[in-house]
Amino acid sequence: MTRQAKTTWISGVCIISPLVLFFIWELAFGSSTGTGILGIVAGFIAIKVILTVATIAFIVQGFRMHWGWGLANMFLGPLAGIAFFVKHRQEGRVPMFILAYGLILLVILLIWSSI
Q1: Which helix or strand (DSSP H or E) is residue 114 part of?
Q2: Which residue has better confidence, 63 or 6?
Q3: CB 100 within 8 Å of CB 54
């Protein structure tokens, strides 16, 4: 992974993480003021952005390896992305980290919103 890719990935995490944490904070303390639903929706939108970035990263890395992997990642989404990561661990590492990060935040948001 190049320095530019690392910088881009870390910058993205640093930008999106505070937004998601703000919306989780809004869920915890804003639900009594009537803005809890807005926090839930905004949290899901932020997580959708993270998962979209992971999908795009899988597509780009797939096309770098072979056109078949790129098409599979484009049309089959995360299923092909996980298979791509298993087959090409070095190239699929960053997209898989982004996908795992998004899924972890989704689970946290779902648990928090059900409380």
Answers
A1: helix 89-114
A2: 63
A3: no
Does residue 113 carry a pLDDT above 80? Answer: no
Question: Is the Cβ–Cβ distance between 93 and 85 less than 8 Å?
Answer: yes
Residue 77, judged by CB atoms within 10 A of its CB (0-12, 13-18, 19+), counts as middle
What is the rounded CA–CA span in Å between residue 107 and residue 50?
14
Which residue's structure tokens are 């881009």?
8
Contact assessment for residue 34 and residue 61, using Cβ atoms and an 8 Å cutoff: no
- What is the distance of C-alpha 24 from the center of its chain? 16
pLDDT tens column, 44-84: 887 888 888 888 889 999 999 999 999 999 999 888 988 99
Rounded distance between C-alpha atoms, residue 99 and residue 93, angstroms: 10
